[in-house]
Protein: Tetracycline efflux MFS transporter TetA(P)
Organism: Kribbella ginsengisoli
Amino acid sequence: MSFLPAYRRADPARTYYAFHGVWAYLSALTFTLNLVYQIKEVGLSPLQLVLVGTTMEIACFLFEIPTGIVADLRSRRLSVLIGFALIGVSFLLQGFVPAFLAILVGQVIWGLGYTFTSGADQAWITDELGEDDVGPIFVRSQQVRLGAQIAGIVSAGAIGLISLSLPLKVSGAGMILLALVLFVFMREQNFHPAPAAERDTFQQMADTFKHGLAVARRRPVVRALVLISLISGLSSEAFDRLWSVKILSDFHFPDLFGTTDPAVWFTVFSLTGTFLALGASLVVSKVSADRVNALHPNGLLALLAGFQLLGVIGFALAGQLWIALAAMWFGAIAATISYPVESAWLNRNLDSRSRATVISMVGQANAIGQVAGGPPLGALAGATSIRTALTVSGLILSPIPLLYLRLRPDTRHVVPAAASSEEAES
C-alpha cells in the first residue's frame, strides 16, 4: 500500500537503478565543481568551507531520525519524493545566490532533503524484493551510479566552462523533475504503514525509535556499524572540504588542451577517479563475487578500510600532484567497493518495522562525527597547515579495520525474508 499511489507501476529493481543513476548524474553535475565554485566565485575561506559542511551535518543530525521514522510509519516512497524535491530546491538556491549565507541555508535544506532519502531508498527496495535478494541489487546499483557519475562529471566540465554556477542550477531543476517522474512510476506494494489512527501520534514515533534503538544495541553488527559510521564522520568532514584547497593552493596545473582552467582539471580528476572506481567495482564483483555478497564480509571490509586510511594519509603527505591524486583515488576506490557490501550486511541484520530508522541512526552517527570533527580539524588547519589537519584526519580512521575484524558471525540476528514479511503483516 502506498501513501501516494503511482499512476503507472514500474519494476522495483529497474526503478531503483533508474533513479539512482539519475541521482548520481545530477549529484556529479553539482559536486564536481561545487567546491571550486564556492572558493572561486563565492570566495569562501577554508574556515567557511568547513563551517558550510558542519552546517549541513548539523541539519543531517537534527533531521535524520525524524525523517527515518516518517519513512517507517508513512511511506518509504513518499520520503524519497520529498527528499529529491528538497535537494533540488537546495541546489537552485546555492546556484542563483552566490553568498555565504545562501550557501548555509542551502546546506540546511540539502541536509533535510538528504535525510528524507537516507535509509528510505534502501528500505523501500528491500521491502519490495526481500532481504535475500537485495545484495546483488546494491552492488549493481553502485555500478550504475558510477557510470552515471561519469556522464555527470563530463557534463559538469562542459557546463562549468560557461559558468561555475550553471551546473547547480541545471541539477536543481533536474532533481525536482526526478521527484515528479517517480511520483508517476515508483510503486510501493510491500510496505505496510501504521494505521491512520496511530501514525500521527508521537507515541507511535517513539515506539518505532525505541525499537530501532533496541536493534542497534542488541545486534553486534549494527552496533559496530554505528560506531564505524561515527569514526568515519570524525575524519571525513575535514578531508571532504579541504582536499580541493590543497590541490588549488599547493600545486600548479599543467596545460591541457590549451588551458589550465580549474574547471577542466577538476573534471579530469573526478572523471579519472570515477572510471577507476567503476573498473574496480566490476572486477571485484566478477572475480570475488562470493566475498562481496558474503553473509559476514568483515575481513573484506577491514581490508578496504585499511586502504581508505592509507589513501587519506598518502594524499595529505604527498608533495606532487599526481602522487596526491593517486592516493586519493586509491582510498576512493576502496570506499566505492565497501559501500554496497556494508549496506547489504546492515540490511540483513534489520527487520522491516524499523529498517529506515536504524539506517538513519547509522547516518546520524556519521553526522555527529562530522559536526564534532570538522571544526577542530579546520582550526588545526588554520593554526598549523592543511597537510597536518589531513594527516590527523587519516589517523582517526585507524580503529575501523580492527572494529571490523572483531565482529564474528551471528546468524541469530540475520532476518530471513519470510520472517520479515510476516512481521510486516502482523
About this structure: The mean pLDDT is 81. The chain has one domain: 12-188+208-414.
